[in-house]
């Protein structure tokens, strides 16, 4: 198993993928992932279980969850749409933090079968979002984001329906509330002790339960989200590094630079310069 250190230049990425591997080492990353299977049979393998997939099926993967998508037969490679996004993107959606329930509910199944109307809705929205990206018409980013919200809403409603129907799918409301609080206040001061007090079960229990559900400690989760926001602002605005640090909830530019370099292996200023050079090269080469 290996950690795939994916770095999104935008907070949302949609790709069409093809793979004929029938066996592969599991990988994991710190992004949320939705896969929509388009063609041929697949095995969606997790660390301790696997799911058989058919065209139209949808699979949701949490950050830091070991997984890999495999073809059942090498001569019939799987085709799928992969939606990758940072949890911080939901800050732009009214009550968007609630839509992350499916990704932070450890007991819920990641598999939404093709026969479900929710899978069909996700399939249609993902296809439309990808088409907007490929056509690249004016305003395509906004249209793509609208379809992305539809995807999240369908996954959220499916998870809640399954929880009510099965009864044995437990949602740790305390941890979900902690995640919601973090997402709502990600650019503000966040006192982890306040989260512990809200949870009401003690520091050790809160930390272990949070890490089991989310994949990382609360502090690491907060920093990861802030780094994703910082990358977005560095690439898309002319704000100073100091202003961006404060916008992301840091009161010390030294502390911000330290965390950013740990996350990206370059300073914020170097990252901005690299992004601008790459953007200029893409324009010169005719790419979008």
UniProtKB/TrEMBL annotation:
Gene3D superfamilies recorded: Homeodomain-like
Protein name (record): AraC family transcriptional regulator
Organism: Paenibacillus antri
Biased composition (Basic and acidic residues): 269-279
UniProt keyword annotation of Cytoplasm present: no
Ranges for region Disordered: 269-288
Superkingdom of the source species: Bacteria
Record key words, sorted: DNA-binding, Transcription, Transcription regulation
A Pfam family reported for this protein in Swiss-Prot or TrEMBL: HTH_18
GO molecular function, one term: DNA-binding transcription factor activity
Span of domain HTH araC/xylS-type: 176-274
Family matches, as PANTHER family: ARAC-FAMILY TRANSCRIPTIONAL REGULATOR (PTHR43280), HTH-TYPE TRANSCRIPTIONAL ACTIVATOR RHAS (PTHR43280:SF28)
